[in-house]
């Protein structure tokens, strides 16, 4: 009983000394409330000449879509931002070892970063919270579905390798106010991306690099992430390259068909129509703004040209055979008319049928 009484006295003395052991105590100490909008209005620096250094890190989680005809790239990424706030700090020893708190994202100022290549608004919900460390470091993590532009080089389609960029920059702040610092992309991060990739559509992630530069026109800091990926070409080989090759083989095998009937001509026309349909399907996949004609288009044009020559050869041969057959029929009719009947004069018939008789006369 005596020990319990002393413990009760110790706890009461601790409460009377004002021990702060809750997150709310930290917020009250920092005066971080929704009513206090001073923390979210301006850059959190005590000297306006001091730039806010924003640390940026991007991780690729999935490649959702790559549209060649629209030249758009749709990745699913994780973006991590961190910066220092000069007006926020506390001693964890005074608050029972609390070294970080979580706040709503709209309470504090955040850097106005944008992605240059983005053409559609992000459909993924933004993170509603941010973390604050005791030294004033503010950290925000968001996952985003980006619909960005990407210039496609399809000359080697479907064996092509594409590189798409994601560029971060401030909307209004120059480099003297906001400096972007990228964390280098390590081999471990690339390996983690390949392992964490949940879906890659028809593309295989190869590597990701990062570099920073200053825009000479706007004087703003930029961080450029370049994603390199390779197309999975197996389905295109099966669905496009091999069928056209098979059609060419069928067209060559049609030379064994007899030229006397019309089956050979109709067969060749049918094969050409099949290749034309496949070429139209391919035209719906490839962008029309390419500077160079893709190799697969040259392949289709070459096969189509060979089939056209084969069709023309068949038409010419059939025309010559028809002409030769008509000439033979005329000779047959003439020889049948020159046959001598039993009651006809042999001399008259000889002069009529023998071309040399008329010349002698």
From TrEMBL:
SUPFAM superfamilies: Neurotransmitter-gated ion-channel transmembrane pore, Nicotinic receptor ligand binding domain-like
Keywords: Cell membrane, Disulfide bond, Glycoprotein, Ion channel, Ion transport, Ligand-gated ion channel, Membrane, Postsynaptic cell membrane, Receptor, Signal, Synapse, Transmembrane, Transmembrane helix, Transport
Residues covered by the Neurotransmitter-gated ion-channel ligand-binding domain: 40-232
Molecular functions per Gene Ontology: extracellular ligand-gated monoatomic ion channel activity; transmembrane signaling receptor activity
Domain of life: Eukaryota
Cellular compartments per GO CC: postsynaptic membrane
Annotated catalysed reactions: Ca(2+)(in) = Ca(2+)(out); Na(+)(in) = Na(+)(out); K(+)(in) = K(+)(out)
Main localization, broad class: membrane
Entry annotated with the keyword Glycoprotein: yes
InterPro entries: Neur_chan_lig-bd, Neur_chan_lig-bd_sf, Neur_channel, Neuro-gated_channel_TM_sf, Neuro_actylchol_rec, Neurotrans-gated_channel_TM, Neurotransmitter_ion_chnl_CS
Residue ranges of the region described as Disordered: 327-361
N-terminal signal peptide: 1-16
Keyword Glycoprotein in annotation: yes
Coiled coil (residue ranges): none
Topology with respect to the bilayer: Multi-pass membrane protein
Family listed: Belongs to the ligand-gated ion channel (TC 1.A.9) family.
Name of the protein described by the UniProt record: 5-hydroxytryptamine receptor 3C-like
Gene from which this protein is expressed: LOC114481808
